[in-house]
Amino acid sequence: MNVLMVFAHPEPRSLNAALRDVAIRELETRGHAVRVSDLYAMNWKTAVDRADFLNLDADGRLKVATASSEAFMAGALTEDVKVEQEKLLWADTLILQFPLWWFTMPAILKGWIDRVYAYGFAYGVGEHSDRRWGDRYGEGRLAGKRAMLIVTTGGWAEHYSPRGINGPIDDLLFPINHGILHYPGYDVLPPFVTYRVDRLDEAGFAQTAERLRERMRTLDTTPPIPFRRQNGGEYLIPSLQLRPDLGSAEATGFSLHRDERSPSESGSGNG
Amino acid sequence: MNVLMVFAHPEPRSLNAALRDVAIRELETRGHAVRVSDLYAMNWKTAVDRADFLNLDADGRLKVATASSEAFMAGALTEDVKVEQEKLLWADTLILQFPLWWFTMPAILKGWIDRVYAYGFAYGVGEHSDRRWGDRYGEGRLAGKRAMLIVTTGGWAEHYSPRGINGPIDDLLFPINHGILHYPGYDVLPPFVTYRVDRLDEAGFAQTAERLRERMRTLDTTPPIPFRRQNGGEYLIPSLQLRPDLGSAEATGFSLHRDERSPSESGSGNG
Known about the structure:
The structure is a homodimer. Chain A is an alpha/beta fold. Chain A contains nine helices and six strands; from the N terminus they run βαβααβαβααββααα. Chain A is 32% helix and 11% strand. In chain A, strands 1, 2, 3, 4, 5 and 6 form a six-stranded parallel β-sheet that branches. In chain A, helix 1 (15-29) packs parallel to helix 7. The longest helix of chain A has 16 residues, at 202-217. Chain A starts with a strand and ends in a 5-residue tail after the last helix. Chains A and B meet through helix 4 and helix 6 of A and helix 4 and helix 6 of B.
């Protein structure tokens, strides 16, 4: 299996870097090929701007989606972006690893998404018509591949629990797991989250490392989060609202977009 | 009233820039003082790194929260960050304006949050003990001020509706409204969201502009989103879980953290 790890922490001696190395060692020991995009070490250009689109008119108004599409089609994206897109196509599994800063990813990683996820590559893929709204949410260029997050946070697990003040971790990560990973096609595995990292002692690190090794050993067998597929008949087109007969009528929020029936019942099947 | 608008779009001729100017004109016409942080025009440094902490040991390991705290206390944050912090203290109302990219803010704006929201300024404020978990979520250095988002997206409103495939817009924006704005104390107003912006014609723009002017006229009277306060007795300490008797027992997700009772019932009062 080919694994791409995109890593976003500024300090090579950080806990995040130590966990990254634990994961890589375990994967390589098991014969997988691993490539790492260490965004800080690469001095990754973070903000989308005119310079990203080599075929843009010097005087033209920058419409980001249009410019992205035209540059992708013409092969006129910048070399750093093309290299990352090739890595995504090469990898069977994508891992994004980062500390949770303000309840989402650090800016440098968001900038990797904003720039690498070009129109025609990660969005704007497939037929758009009255009957089909593109290949996305379970379909798309990266369909058939797996993805997962490795996240650290200083906060307590309770604070991210279903009734915790920060909001449930799965909901906080939904815009990433569903909106960034499931969107271009990935099957998304449950995230690996480590809490209270500022207080992690040696024994705690050893436990965390072992939990992480176990996740790496089961990367290809762990059942993905059962996000619904856009084009599986569960959403109305073009409103893209969940069919009235699906999900609890009272349910609100992100949980509607998971199909929580058992695999045999839903016929989707995992693993 | 003093208003700070933080603006994150790379194109001066964009719809976003036009809406920004509509908002500014309306505010200035009504006698308010407006300052704008146009992040692309300022060439804002996006990624947190060692260079942000002027008093950091050259050989020291970078622990971001610790370095942020020490630099804030010593006045050793960089000048660009200090200027933005002063603007935040000056402003009675903060507006963040951006196009929704991958269901959250563009990287350059996330980098503004990551860098300006220093430890001791926007987090790590107030007493931390067994009985009190700091001044945050309704308290903190920016308490008593108001904040709101102005957001554009290419997607349809239906796709962001309660049963829409992207997830409800209020839930997608919760990590920002609650986790970034309510956290350091702001009263957070409902966001101003414009959908299908790629198809907006002249008449549509005129309507949108008028809706936006109305929001600017009512900036100081619009009732904020009724997010619960951390230290108002509704959360257990230190687990910071919502008291078992509050919110529906079946409720899940972010809605728990809004107090939907009427102001007279909850005694919170708006306006």
